[in-house]
């Protein structure tokens, strides 16, 4: 698989024009474009059409569904009918609800389960009221949710590059999407807490990386994406791909 198909760019913008501009500008270097809450809440399914029209290879609809099983099932089926390649659910919705989304999607949409958000710290998990034995170690919480994702039949999970090696060790068939990635030349974590570089994420076992602001806020976004691709390629080669 081409390395660019492992790089996911989040279209974290609220205008359709802007989203299309990013796709046209980056599509030679980025294979997967992510439509998240910002764009989808503003424009709905039209956003998917526009991103496809602009030439995206693959589309990732990041809705992080978290609701009762019947609602998750219907929402996931409707999302898959828009022809998206990847859809996210939140694993805190529980195994039954996630299993129903996995069974409901049509046309080959792959369901990924979000474990612990990369913006969360251990202190935040404790404040939320996560079971103390899990929030003692974020990795344990991620592994617990990865176990649910595996048992629910998910294609993969979303986790940080800090836990991805533990996830791969325990569930080697689960694919992993890693956000919270910062190259050395754009090291500011911003609102991310558990951050790694592209090379670290891949050497730890990431299959896909989500990288937004380091590209979007760069003086030369295409150049930034190319630098990231080169780092990813080298790391995948070290892993024997
Ligand atoms: O599901 C996600 O994509 C996601 C999960 C997670 O735990 N952390 C996380 O940052 N994300 C998304 O990944 C992107 C990260 O963007 P940057 O921090 O700008 O690289 C955003 O679109 C987030 O919504």
TrEMBL record:
Class of enzymatic activity (EC top level): lyase
GO cellular component, one term: cytosol
Keywords: Decarboxylase, Lyase, Pyrimidine biosynthesis
Molecular function terms from GO: orotidine-5'-phosphate decarboxylase activity
Orotidine 5'-phosphate decarboxylase domain sequence ranges: 6-228
Keyword Glycoprotein attached: no
Active site feature: 62, 64, 67
Annotated family: Belongs to the OMP decarboxylase family. Type 1 subfamily.
Role of this protein: Catalyzes the decarboxylation of orotidine 5'-monophosphate (OMP) to uridine 5'-monophosphate (UMP).
Name used for this protein in its record: Orotidine 5'-phosphate decarboxylase
